[in-house]
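Lab notes, practical 5.
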Amino acid sequence: MRVKKFVRTEYRILDWHARNGKPFTTNLNKYAHIVDTDIFSEVKMNLSGTFRFWFQYKGSTRAEPDGALYVQVEPTLHVGPPGAQKIIPLNSVRCQTVLTKLLGPINTWEAKLRVAKESGYNVIHFTPIQELGGSRSAYSLRDQLKVNQHFAAKKGGTIGFDDVEKVIKKCRQEWGLASICDIVLNHTANESDWVREHPDVTYSCATSPYLRPAFLLDAVLAKCGEDVAAGALEHVGVPTVIEREDHLQALKYQLHHVYLPKVNIYELFQCNVINYVNEFMVLVRKLAPPKHVADQTRFSEIQLITDSQYRRLGAKINLNLALEIFNAFHSDCFDEESRFRKCAETLRQRLETLNEEVRSEVQGYLGYAIENCLAGIRYERVQEDGPMVREISEKHPLFMQYFTQIKAFGKSLNEIEQDMYDELGSYFQAHNGWVMGYSDPLRDFAEEQPGRGNVYLKRELIAWGDSVKLRYGKKPEDSPYLWQHMTEYVVTTAKIFDGVRLDNCHSTPIHVAEYLLDAARAINQDLYVVAELFTNSDATDNVFVNRLGITSLIREALSAWDSHEEGRLVYRYGGEPVGAFYVNPKRDLAPSVAHALFMDQTHDNPSPVEKRSIYDLLPSAALVAMACCATGSNRGYDELVPHHIHVVEEKRQYQEWGKGVDFKSGIIAAKRALNLLHGQLAEEGFSQVYVDQMDSNIVAVTRHSPTTHESVILIAHTAFGYPHPNAGPTGVRSLRFEGTLDEIILEADITMKSDKPYDRPGPFKKDPIYINGFSQFQLNLREHIPLNKSQIFRSTPQIDGNITQLDFEHLYPGSVVAVRVSLHNPTKPHAEYLQTVVTALQNEEGSVYDELREIISKLDLVDLNRALFTCDEEERDQGYGGAAYDIPNYGRIVYCGLQGFISILTEISPRNDLGHPLCNNLRDGNWMLDYIADRLVHREGTKVLSKWLKTTFEPLKNIPRYIIPCYFDAILSGVYEALVRHTYQLMPEFIRDGHNFPQTLALATLQFLSVCKSANLPPLSPAVKPQPPKICVTLSAGLPHFSTGYMRCWGRDTFIALRGLMYLTGRFQEARYIILGFGQCLRHGLIPNLLDNGIKPRFNCRDAVWWWLNSIKQYVSEAPRGQDILNDYVSRIFPYDDSEPHGPGKFDQKLIDVMQEALQVHFQGLQYRERNAGYEIDAHMTDQGFNNNIGVHPETGFVFGGNIANCGTWMDKMGSSEKAGNRGRPATPRDGSAVELVGLQMSVLRFMQVLSEKGLSEYKSVERKGPKGEQTSWTYKQWADRIQNNFEKYFFVTEAETGMRANKKNIYKDCYGASQGWTDYQLRCNFPIAMVVAPELFNAQNAWKALEQARKHLLGPLGMKTLDPDDWNYRPNYDNSNDADDCTVAHGFNYHQGPEWVWPIGFYLRARLIFAKKCGYLDATIADTWSILRAHFKELHTSHWRGLPELTNDNGAYCNDSCRTQAWSVATVLEVLDDLHAIGGDV
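Output from the prediction step:
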């Protein structure tokens, strides 16, 4: 494969593959039809850094991508000689910062850098090595392309980059030290010659005129400062030494009333009113008289347009617009001259108003600026916690300078103002700095900002007066020299060092850093990039990390205000919690913060001795060393330097190893031990972290290995404040851990060499030549000792079972102890075995996995239901005393099988929620382990799996309790995945080799199909072969409400769901039994609404029989030898409407005969009263409701039925509130001819016609007798044709419909011939059902119009609204417990009056696909269908039930009374996916 050079601005098209590796994009077809999440593209990265991947929708007109993500490839740090290099893992980095300018001549560098090597560091961070500016700041570079000549070995000698590279190379190859160096991209020193030659590279009065007002303010402040220094303001209360608040107040008065009026900065934003008024008068005299009266409402259209050059009174207005608005008639003017004057006066008033608004706004900014200036002076000169500067000088000016004013010295303010518009303005250059609390770090604060205020005018900048800010523009072409110059600088640095540190990254234009880092990585592919960011936002940090490929962000331990916060930072910046879950690639990745370089002190920080106490240096360094990330320190920390080694002011050199610095210096020996421990922990995989606050000053940090389960525990006694000079040991609770003590790795403490071991140090004396630290402190270090040699712990441990307890005896402030512990010997084999099991399950290989797979291969789908699902009621129904597992402080899980536990684990494992009640329960006892295995022993098919689980779980009971959750999850997830995979293997190709979406739905079908003792099929005819099991699989309408007993098996629900749940998953034999079982109960030409084992079936629905007949049609066409079912024998329980129940085999008929009877009864028509009518079967229905009738309309052929007092279709809510007055009143009677029943009728009639024509049925027609004995006979073809000819006529509501009831046009009626005629015209979600089962009934164009109406008015996020929101009956939120007196919602009366049911969306989407093809919209509709289904895909993967709900409330809101997973919801959505598959819409 040819490797292409990476260019950030050039994108390439990726090759995408399906899960099986088959490619589905090519060079010729760059677009892929993405319908699932299980696709991949393999990209080999040979370059570290960040890479942006994006996608765009086909046909998208957006300039930007429609979606994108960043992938970061971490660099690899190599050290050691060529051929024998070793890698420094990022979490093993121990970095020491050195201010390069303090290293002195280069021939002394090795001796000085050896301090880092001997102290256990493996990376050195160098501040810039380039030539410095006049301030001698380490970060103010005069020439980025020259080495600092002060490094020359001899005075007056020369030095180049090659000389530096030799030292760096030796560090890398001989000492094993990698190196990084700062790159400073924001600014350059004031003295930079190349800036004087190319002044356009800066923000100046010439390149950025919008800064001219701010420059003028800077100039006037400088003049004021000069006057104060000269004593010119002493007579007005501002002395040369400002040291009191009254001095500041006097200065404030002078600034506002004397100095600012000298320049009137607001005039740079104002217009010249007199000139504009005069020009207006001249022009208005030349114009024809106006025809409109002056309109004050338009005056505000005139606004000031700021002059681009910010000249005094130079703002502009739109004069033509002003003439249009102000040249108008005025009622009080009687001649043209007076009108002219009136118009001009009106304009003048408007302009003066605008000028005043500008003056007020700008003066507000200036007032704010003055307050900021005074705050700075107050801190520097007045406050006791500030430096209390007394002099006013070039080094310490009174006001911070924001601009270079070299060319302004000795000039008046008027002259300076004139110069800023001329060539000299290019030398009035803005300084760089830091903006406190800047709201948008992604925006360059020196760029032109919206409005009139900016950072420089408002004096919000902490300016660095020794450097000017660089102006890159948006692209290299905007400033070619600057981009080329800085590219050469960065590339040179990258050639020498292993990495770079982005100084002041948050203020660096992100596109500039991106470009320059790409150039650096082009010559150093493993560039380690470190940055400091002060954005105060993880989200903003991530933008920089993603765009720039930052490897590590610098984090400061000194930001902690106490030991608790410091412990929190240790935990935050790296590692997983102890006992963390194993990463599962099928789950979400755990979110994490950017990788940290966690430092006990950075070179920007003051010494901890100044902020805390000297006794805290060791414990805080120890805590940092225990962090699971890169760590670092600043040279001087380990040597106990008690002051800030200032990047500007420090001029002394570092000391050399062996000459003032050795293992006896400061805490170097302890730091070496801690650094080596840090590296060892990273390299040996101690990736888990636990932080325990043992005391207000004592923190324990545990680093744990998830493979060996060894731990290192470090206890640090911090000392943020000084302890008592003679402090004794601190009393603290004992250290307890599960396992055995292997060794004490180290004990260390630091004390003063005096009779007061914790006394405050006396005055520090600086060495005049070298940087030195305290020498009056003694480090006591003991390494790798047994417990009986400890000076901190009691010499004898206490053993309590598996718990070891170490008691503290001498834990003093500033002391540190680290111990290594491991599992007890009897425990190790159990942990090792579990590790083997987890590895086998994760890799899906090995003897353990093979054994499990063999066991699972023998399970059938009913066994799999038992192993994976089974809700609480179903478990209880088994009769073994079981129930759903009840987790204390959480509640019962939704399934007794593995899915119940996996649903929770999928949520808690990515975020390592080890405090979840499930984890607590696992740690507290073995109940969950036993439950999972024991419940499977009761079913023959799952007994062997039960035994395997019991055996595998046994070692879990013999390991430390805190690691049980992670192993439990890994084992259970592995078994779960194996069970799921086997489930797919038992299903047809569409599922077995399909996408994740249909597979997940197919898995959900198992939830509803199980054996249930209280809800069996009636015994089938002995003639049925093969005979079904004693307890057959039945289909639950939904869980948990319809799981057992008489409420489990609903006729309509079963046959709406049968194809999706059983045919598409290949379960034809079980489906056959269900069809025959319901057929046995036929009575009155109907099948039961509620089966109730066939013992007490209830015949109160008129739609179930049509769904049953339609399911038979589908079975015949889809099942292997499906037509055979027509001749299967059905043992009629009720061979006659008034007969008593018959047993199996007593009255057998072929299924086709039963089907014919159902159709014959409907054609003849029937009126009947439900048996046992009354309270016993329905506590709410009125007497009239028990009376039923069904029949066929003689003209249209439409089936009809029902009455105003009952509800025989799926919208079957019966009112039950006496209080609200809806008891016994059906909410949606839908009597007459319901649209979906007419569609089902048409489907069935054409099926019967085909059976007759093919000779598969002897029945060709139906007959009926009239009241006088006359006979009518229709063939099935005649009947179907009659429906065909009348359907559009009677159901479609055209645009021409004029009746008051037709409030929606271009829809299909919900019913025809209802008792309440207006309900026929209600827009509901039922007509798409008819479209799917009988598309031939519909005119394609009318059908599409109606579907678009449904999309507009009925489509919800997950389901379809059951009623048009414009209907006065619309009530979208279902609450069955509502006991209000509102009859429209009481007791959930609005069940089908607006709530969004999920199952109809399947028919809606299928109907759209059918008619989109007919109308030529198929491609767009396929894409739209997938877009709609995203919500269902998400629901399937996030619902604990792993299904689709019965319904939702308004706009997809959660409905508390809904079944959480419903059979027909899952079934109909799976049918949509099957349709998409059939037309190639899923590839």
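Observations recorded by the TA: The longest helix spans residues 336-382. The chain has 38 helices and 51 strands.
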